[in-house]
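Its record is set out here:
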Amino acid sequence: DLLQAVKLDSTNALYLQQLGALHYAMKNSRFAKNAWEECARLDSRNIDCRLSLAEIYLAVGELKKGQVKINEVLDFDAKNADALYLSGNYALIEGDTVKAIKYIQSSINQNQDFFKAYDLMGVLYTAKGDLLALDYFNSALRLQPNRYDIHYKVGMFYQNIGSYTEAILAYNRALAVNSEHKISLHNIAVLNVFLGEHENALDFFSKALIIDDMYLEAYFGRGYTHELLANIVKSEADYRTALMLDPSYRPAMDGLMRIGK
């Protein structure tokens, strides 16, 4: 029993490190932080406890305390990939994207199997509309090819730059891994509207609603597609369902006004 082990030897940093991990897994972040703080105090060179503390401090916005722990790790090991990655995350919270990219790329240079670093770099370059995003997402997929969320992010990148056919292919890859990913279904439907493929759009909006019958945007999208096809009765029904879910949803209100209902 880990708790008993700590009671018997409260100066064992490894026990405290494991106890902190146990508390964190049980969502007891305050107890986890206390255990890791004591671990760090007892063992001036324990990297894992310091990195765990940095993650907790990041989550609660105590950036100065967290940065101290990261710096302590980098003092021991200037090439520690996890510490460099966390430094990038801290820079993001502070609004310094350039600095964040520098640190996260440095973490990848030290660990070329760093999945979440590739993922985050893809997200950052997506925000810039930079094709480098695809390189990072593809690197992430080489490590974990069945991550539907990465395929979805590839789809979002293509959608944002207007490459609708490529976006649909990426969303379909996401669905091949997770057939119930409703946002991919919805986005395929939206892109089919843009492409003038209205029947396909209706089909995908309906598939999204099978997954989630409270999906507000899918009701609106299907209603709008029916409106484009002059299916006024069906359009009205979907707009009204959207307003049942959210009476203040302006797009559905406007839709009803357009069809004169």
The chain has a mean pLDDT of 91.
